[in-house]
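User: Working on a comparison across species. This one is Peroxisomal membrane protein 2 from Seriola lalandi dorsalis. Can you predict its structure so I can line it up against the others?
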Amino acid sequence: MPVESLPVRDAPIHFRLLQQYLVLLKKYPILTKSVTSGILSALGNLLSQILEARKKAKHGAPISEIDTAGAARYAIYGLFITGPVSHYFYQLMEVWMPTTDPYCIIKRLLLDRLVFAPGFLLLFYFVMNILEAKGWEDFEKKMRKSYWTALKMNWKVWTPFQFINVNFVPVQFRVLFANSIALFWYAYLASVRK
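Assistant: Here's the predicted structure for Peroxisomal membrane protein 2 from Seriola lalandi dorsalis:
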């Protein structure tokens, strides 16, 4: 029985979106990863706000409006920091720790968890502080109050996902994979930084 292929325009919407994403990823890798990071970061912040509003409503507390400026800050962070930094980090990891290295699985995970994660979280706190137009005292206060807690949670939550990401996900999809997990991670960070 012959199989008839469908033209892309007749394919389901999710298939067409994936096809378009792959084309853009190949043609404009950094820009595509950056825009994706910005969108998913903003969605993570909005998710945090929605969950917080539901929690307040459940306890009868007054609900505040959606903070669009907060979502915009997360979008800016994803667009200008998460996308490009993650792209180059994963590319360099491939060069520094090729799959031909017999210990690359462990080395990649240790590099990500012990070097990249603490530095990237510190960068997140610093950039968010700037985007919120807060001073150095506020930055120090938030660092003392929640950095260590957030880093420990990062190690707990991200380690299994990053083990899979840095060792088994093709390099061109690592930022997207991490962004998918980060959608929920940014919801956590938005709540813990308050």
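For your comparison, note: The mean pLDDT is 90.

User: Helpful, thanks.
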